[in-house]
Design brief:
globular; single chain; eight-stranded antiparallel β-barrel; mainly beta; 9% helix; 38% strand; Lipocalin
Length: 289
């Protein structure tokens, strides 16, 4: 049997246990269990690797790294780098210097691009698809393939400051040569309207021609079969419709024309055809005395 001293010690221990909240206060974990009975949830287990202290709700585990990489910081998709076709076509607009064929100026209208270049008073027109410009080149005297016209293909550089391309006579399978160019500053535009670039009186393939201008519009008359013309002027290029007696109507007595003014303004080279689908024929002129 325990003596009074032992009973007093036991009572003191019980009082201490009650006051300190059980065994937790003396350094023993509240969920302590004997060796061999601990589980993965014990405080001795290491935290999950990569744990940043966030709860499961703090991040979306459904997205993959590749999906996250394609988004901006606000979660939006990045803008396409290709751009609209019209925007790419406008990248070809402007002035270019080619070591093969001289100075060239291009204008864009939607996906269509057209212009003129120095060699043999050349003209160029086509369409842009992506960074590739394809179409037809035409030169004096006939402005018609296969001898004075054919196909081309230009590929724009990534910075838009140059292009590399090729050309051929007509539409054959093989390419005839290279066509490269670098972008240059355009010459200042003429400060006056077309009337001061184009003279009013000309001696032409089809007799004397007299022109009248109103803004970019042109009307005129020429000697052959009491002919008339009507069209528009854009710089050195004049395009429109010719018409002659007796009917003044296509396809037998009217059709299309194109004239290109020489740089010195004293002559033009051009072409005409019946209706809008006939073969092109030569029409040129010189400044009348």
């Amino acid at each position: 049997m325990m003596g009074r001293r032992e009973i007093a010690v036991v009572c003191l221990v019980c009082i201490l246990v009650v006051l300190t909240g059980g065994c937790a206060g003396i350094g023993i974990p509240a969920d302590w269990s004997p060796a061999g009975e601990s589980d993965s949830g014990s405080v001795s287990s290491p935290p999950p690797s990569g744990d940043t202290g966030q709860t499961a709700d703090d991040s979306d585990s459904s997205s993959t790294p590749s999906e996250d990489a394609g988004q901006g910081t606000d979660g939006s998709q990045p803008a396409s780098s290709s751009g609209a076709p019209e925007v790419i076509a406008s990248a070809f607009a402007g002035c270019w210097d080619s070591p093969e064929w001289g100075w060239m100026r291009l204008e864009a209208n939607g996906t269509a691009v057209s212009g003129a270049y120095e060699y043999d008073e050349g003209r160029i027109e086509g369409v842009v698809d992506g960074f590739v410009f394809t179409g037809m080149w035409l030169e004096t005297p006939s402005y018609a393939p296969p001898d004075d016209g054919g196909e081309f293909e230009f590929v724009l550089s990534a910075d838009g400051q140059s292009f590399a391309g090729q050309w051929r006579y007509g539409s054959g399978e093989g390419w005839s040569g290279s066509w490269t160019a670098v972008r240059v500053e355009c010459e200042p535009a003429a400060p006056s309207g077309p009337a001061l670039q184009w003279a009013n009186r000309w001696d032409t393939t089809y007799g004397e021609m007299v022109l009248s201008f109103s803004g970019d519009r042109v009307t005129g008359e020429y000697e052959s079969d009491d002919g008339r013309i009507e069209g528009t002027v854009s710089g050195r290029l004049m395009t429109g419709i010719w018409a002659e007696e007796p009917s003044y109507a296509p396809p037998n007595d009217a059709g299309q024309f194109e004239f290109t003014l020489a740089e010195d303004g004293r002559s033009f080279t051009g072409r005409w055809r019946y209706g809008s689908e006939g073969s092109w024929r030569l029409w040129s002129g010189t400044l009348a005395d």
